[in-house]
Fold:
Amino acid sequence: MTRSRTRQAAASHPNPLAFPVKVSTAEVERAVARGRRLQHEALRAAFARAFAFLKASPRQRGSGFYRKHQTH
Structure:
């Protein structure tokens, strides 16, 4: 994929906003979708970790909370 001269200049320039670079709507939408997907995957991973943590037996978890606070 060849980058336009403007884009190359913008990439190497300290202030990329100095160059008006035309970006297609499709490109923006793709980037947004990708960001959303990444965010979604991160959330799913975080929840999976949390649930694995909750489902693990206290002994596996090694918190010692249940052993210390057992009522029976």
